[in-house]
Write a structure and sequence with these properties.
Structural class: alpha+beta
Radius of gyration: 17 Å
CATH architecture: Roll
Number of strands: 6
Order of helices and strands: EEHHHHEEEE
Largest sheet: 6 strands, antiparallel
Number of helices: 4
CATH superfamily: Hotdog Thioesterase
Length: about 150
Amino acid sequence: MERSKYGDDFHLGDVYTTAAITVTEAHLVHWAGLTMDFYPLHMNKEYAAKTQFGQRLAHGPLIFAMAVGLVSMSGVGGDAAVAWLGVDNMKMLKPVYIGDTITVVVEVIDKQPTRKPDKGTQVWRYRVKNQRDEEVMVFDYKMMFYMKG
């Protein structure tokens, strides 16, 4: 099957930047309902106001999911991916608040062949940034790609 992109199209050091999205209360409410994570720091305005943050925070896993979605929506990977293999080195560096706008800067940091010449693995470092260009989350996303072989 002919593909629009292959793992061969990505090179160490390549950098891609996604579009941005503003994190809304609707995102938090839907995420809480989907995951059953109704922790008061995310869902209770009065509780959150009394914390060191002073307001509600977005769920860390929600920000991870939104970052993955932003990269997918960018189309950078095309139809080259076979499978997601995992994530390493995930760190939440700063809080994300309702009303913050996030974008993702992705860098190809590792490429490895597999035993099958038509497949290879890659690690892409995701750096999630807010509207002030501050890194709020970072992680290494490992995927298997179709190769031209």
